[in-house]
Amino acid sequence: MNLPFFEIEIVLEIFSILFLPLLSDSYISYASFSNITFFLPAFIYFLANPKEKCFYEPLLWLSSFPFAILCIGFGRDSLLFHEMYMVCFYNAAIAFNLKLPFFSYLLKGLQTGFVPLQLHATITEAFIEITRNSFTFIEAVLISTGLSSVAYATFLNEAGPLVSVLAGVLLISVPSLVLLNSCLLQICSSCKLTKEKSSLLVYAASILVVIFVSRLWVSKRIQQKPEYWVFAQIFLSPYSKKRITILIWWVMCLSSYIGFIICSHNGSFFRDYFGSKGELLNFRRKTYHALIVFMFLPTYCTDPYFVHLAFSGVLFSFLFIEGIRVLRLEPFGEMIHKFLWQYTDNRDHRGPLIISHIYLLIGCAIPVWFSHALRGPVASAELLVGVLCLGCGDSMASIIGKKYGRTRIHRTGKTLEGTAAFSVSVFVVLQLAHRMHICPHVSLRNTLAMSVCTAMLEAVSLENDNLILPMYMWVLYRALENT
């Protein structure tokens, strides 16, 4: 008799998500159909025939994982619970449709019957079309789910000033700039304009979009001029002294990092220390993670509101610069491309976008956005989980794993030594952050559980660490804090 074969890495990946309800009484007590669909990935993997086992993955990450974030992280009393609840079901249908095409009829029926799902489907299709294979299908649908939640909060008038600014960046500015500039470049090409004239036209059009579309939209949402509102938040607020200090700290960190990058390119010490170009490249990439740690770790709990605003502004800047790079606009496009290309990995080569640095920013910002949506700008250790995962854990796992790793994990190629470094670094930094009064207290038990479980998921999952790990550690923190 042939016993079924199960990969231990996949079992651990499924378990890392599906054990989350065991930490939360609120989810278990809420008996509904979602509890059944939540555990479907396990049933499919353990009971389906070998050819269908891989079907567990999209269902796990597109439906079960968002269900965990919604029900355990935010709870049934959250403002957008019912809308996002339907989106989770819709994502499950998307996952089934990958293997069972007749589910497309169900998708169309759901879109017809529920306006929020029609909006979610439109956002998903537009995002996939705009990014053109730069993201995997699972990543694209997950990001679109987040964009849909921002859209619902905005259109249902549940969004405060900060979410309005974020919505202005993600839902108004970026799509408008993409559509307008695509049309302009086609016109320039047909008119045979020079590259310099085409670039100048695109810059002018972008400025007009920001002034007359994005600015007016945000102004209407917050009931005042955006530039005055931002100025007042920094210089006229009761927290102005604190916020100016934060800005000075960020400028100092950026200046030091730029100096370090120049030295690492010109000096021979780093080239001699690292045995190969691959190790040196990995070290340079992880120094960007270290910059994030030094910049944001001391400031998260100091002023969560201002950090939320800063992340929204920096995200728009990153996306705008990426647009200049993709379109190779004169005179900066080619310079930006050459600088960023030397820090890319295989994930950046799938499509036209270089996403690593944007992913890192989003990963560090997600806990701030989630926490603010849940309970406002409250200082809490949950704000730090993004920078802990990516700035500390992922960096140490990569550096230690590549330098000293010997025992490899079959599915992902990562090492047990790197996984141990991830767990230890997250545990130590979070405890040090509390003792240095950077964040409120987190018990040793919860710190250990978060560091070990997140390190385990990082080791066995094939999904993008920068997107998955901050959300996972955030919902894990919420579950542990509520027990």
UniProtKB/TrEMBL annotation:
GO terms for biological process: dolichyl monophosphate biosynthetic process. The chain crosses the membrane at residues 27-47, 59-78, 84-107, 137-156, 162-188, 200-218, 244-263, 306-327, 353-371, 383-401. It comes from the Eukaryota. It is a multi-pass membrane protein. One of its GO terms (cellular component) is endoplasmic reticulum membrane. Its EC number is 2.7.1.108. The keyword Transmembrane helix applies. InterPro entries: Polypren_kinase. It is found in: Endoplasmic reticulum membrane. Belongs to the polyprenol kinase family. PANTHER family: DOLICHOL KINASE, TRANSMEMBRANE PROTEIN 15-RELATED. This is dolichol kinase. It comes from Schizosaccharomyces osmophilus. The lineage of its organism: Eukaryota, Fungi, Dikarya, Ascomycota, Taphrinomycotina. The gene is sec59.
